[in-house]
Write a structure and sequence with these properties.
heterodimer; A: about 100 residues; alpha+beta; Alpha-Beta Plaits; 5 strands; elongated; B: about 450 residues; 2 domains; 5-stranded antiparallel sheet; 12 helices; 18 strands; about 30% strand; globular
């Protein structure tokens, strides 16, 4: 089973207690696989214990990208979190650890 | 009317590199250079500095930035637009004029104020994040409405070389010169949305050019010690090509541009700014040459009726302590150390967090890392109401030297005052911006 790391790249962004995670296919041909496998449910399961709120997924086929918007993901919010990585910048790497079936 | 405008992105945050915008202004053939220097919390911290000293409260490195930039801006005829004013745009204008006088370079600076709405806040208004009324977040230290591009237009029309503001929505810093030069109207939503897409791509400067992108062997980026900051050539219709100065480090590709386009976007169909509701969902990014990406097809809808207000409040203190363990059984000793602290401090703090750096500090045990590190660093952080109480966290960790597991070393402790940020909305009609002009030239001084 390939890791997302082998197929795609990701950048995490933050807005309050919400984390945005892009997932961008290296090869355009892999986008349909990502769109099929990397569902909201799959991401919620993978990031269980990190993302505590709802997750929304947006599809951007012309960019071969998915955008995940994860609520309650930053320990209460960037400005007051006790976390070392209060912005959740490293969540990009966490998402790319996910394994999917071909 | 000019057919295209070249805008440069010269800073992505207050602490960004100082040399890159100078190089960009010198070699980029820019019309405008934009410096985005205000993160969410920056303005609240600046407001506290201003209370301490009324002549302060603008960006702490403003003088340094202007000293390095002003000569090249003047020589190349580049106008500067920035939110370096933070909590004191007029003070920033005075500081810029002081630099100009010292360097003997004539300058006209327009300061834009009106974003500070602390006195006009309704404390029973709900916060966007939690719905809890603002009054629950006292003491408040700052409240700044996100102004849009329109607030900058009178400043640009004044002919100022430098426009310095406080809280302006980041993309609006780029949209304003486009509205000014191309005569875009406030209801021309598609053009405003395209300008917003350009602004969003440029506002984090190096992040479009391979910065925050590189991953050795997978996403290689050349010359990262000297990443060239980006510029965009924008047409009257808002179509744009983003690029950087030839010979600089970094790279701009569809991949780097896609990461930045989606960065911090919570709804690609409706990216809200004071200027427009921008739809990025159909945006195309196409490589048109080396380090060149064409940006097209953003669409716009009517702008939001209310303005977002970012409210800063005093949120107490965080005390931290760290200590490291190495070699055989390092993880177990670090974990034991954490358990000791947890037992001694548990219940004393509103929130106490114990991390093992090198193992669980970023994502806990959620992804169960199999790699066993050679060294592990214990980190404890506690939230406290006072500085004195916060200090105890670090003291307790330091006491592990003589009371904790074997081999602990490199203890560090730290206390930081916390400024929290929440948001609310304010009616546009209650926010009025103003322009104050300051200028200096040798002739005027002689008179």
């Amino acid at each position: 089973m390939p890791k997302l790391y082998d197929l795609a790249h990701c950048r995490a962004g933050d807005k309050g207690n919400t984390s945005t995670l892009s997932l961008i296919a290296y090869r355009d041909d892999d986008y349909p696989l990502l769109a099929e496998r990397v569902t909201v449910d799959a991401v919620a399961k993978h990031l269980h214990g990190i993302v505590r709120g709802a997750i929304r997924r947006y599809e951007l086929p012309q960019l071969c990208a998915l955008q995940f918007v994860c609520e309650e993901a930053l320990g209460g919010g960037v400005t007051t979190s006790l976390a070392l990585d209060a912005h959740g910048k490293s969540l990009s790497s966490a998402l790319l650890e996910m394994q999917i079936e071909r | 009317m000019r057919e295209r405008l070249r805008l440069g992105g010269g800073a992505g945050f207050a602490g960004d590199r100082l040399d890159a915008p100078v190089h960009l202004a010198e070699h980029g053939a820019l019309d405008y250079l934009v410096l985005e220097c205000l993160a969410e919390r920056t303005i609240a911290l600046a407001q506290m500095r201003r209370r301490h000293d009324p002549t302060k409260g603008f960006d702490a490195r403003l003088t340094q930035r202007i000293e390095s930039l002003l000569p090249v801006l003047a020589r190349r005829g580049v106008r500067l637009v920035s939110n370096l004013g933070a909590a004191n745009p007029i003070g920033a204008a005075d500081a810029i004029v002081a630099v100009a006088r010292r360097l003997g370079i004539p300058v006209k600076v327009a300061a834009v104020t009106g974003d500070d709405v602390l006195d006009a806040l309704e404390l029973d208004a709900p916060t966007i994040e939690t719905g809890v009324p603002l009054s629950r977040y006292a003491p408040l230290v700052s409240a700044n409405a996100y102004l849009g591009a329109e607030a900058l237009l009178p400043a640009l029309a004044s002919g100022a070389d430098i426009v310095v503001a406080g809280r302006i929505a980041d993309p609006s810093l780029f949209v304003a010169p486009l509205m000014h030069e191309f005569g875009w109207a406030p209801h021309d939503v598609d053009r405003l949305a395209r300008g917003t897409a350009v602004g969003h791509l440029l506002e984090c400067a190096g992040q479009l050019c391979g910065g925050y992108f590189a991953d050795p062997g997978r996403k290689d980026v050349p010359g990262m010690a000297d990443i060239g900051f980006p510029f965009a050539d924008v047409t009257q219709d808002g179509d744009a090509i983003v690029s950087k100065v030839a010979g600089t480090g970094g790279r701009i590709t569809r991949a780097t541009a896609t990461e930045q386009l989606l960065y911090e976007v919570t709804d690609p169909h409706g990216y809200l700014t004071p200027d427009v509701t921008a739809d990025f969902s159909q945006v195309t990014l196409a490589e048109t040459g080396p380090d060149q990406v064409a940006v097209r097809n953003a669409r716009g809808r009517k702008r939001p009726r209310a303005l977002k207000v970012s409210v800063g409040y005093l949120a107490g203190y965080i005390g931290e302590g760290e200590i490291g363990y190495a070699g055989a059984n390092a993880s177990a000793r670090a974990r034991l150390a954490g358990e000791i602290i947890g037992e001694r401090l548990g219940g004393r703090y509103a929130e106490l967090r114990i991390d093992l750096i090198g193992s669980t500090s970023l994502h806990g045990r959620a992804l169960d890392p199999r790699e066993r590190p050679y060294e592990v660093r214990l980190r404890v952080a506690g939230r406290a109401a006072t500085r004195e109480e916060a200090l105890v966290v670090g003291d307790e960790v330091e006491a592990l030297y003589t009371n904790g597991p074997a081999g602990g070393g490199g203890a560090r402790k730290l206390v930081t005052e916390q400024i929290g940020i929440v948001s609310t909305l304010v009616d546009r009609a209650r926010v009025a911006s103003e322009v104050t002009v300051r200028e200096w030239n040798a002739h005027a001084e002689a008179l």
